[in-house]
Amino acid sequence: MIKNENIKFRISADLKALLKEKASRVGISESEYIRKSILNSQIVNQITKQIDPQIRYSFFQASNNLNQIAKALNVIVKRDQIDRNFQTEILENLFKNEQLLNRIYTILKGESK
Q1: Which helix (H) or strand (E) element contains residue 54?
Q2: Residue 83: phi, psi to the nearest 5?
Q3: What is the rounded CA–CA span in Å between residue 81 and residue 88?
């Protein structure tokens, strides 16, 4: 690879020391370490912090509601006020909704594959 371009950027003294240490540890120059990092790393999407607060609140509220429904259902079953088959059906539906919420959360975080 022909290296005919220069790049200049600013970093903190701490990051510079860390770069120097890591490059030294593997026996290459700092420039080479940066080049190898660019070629060998994956960019992680950090949408989590950017998710609209109302969406986050609604998501966690829905998750909390599912947990409260499941808890109430278990109390009713212990009192023999509901048929076990009906309880199983409701719990299965709650589980499906929980899985859906987890999938939505994963997508919102940007970790979807």
Answers
A1: helix 53-78
A2: -70, 135
A3: 14
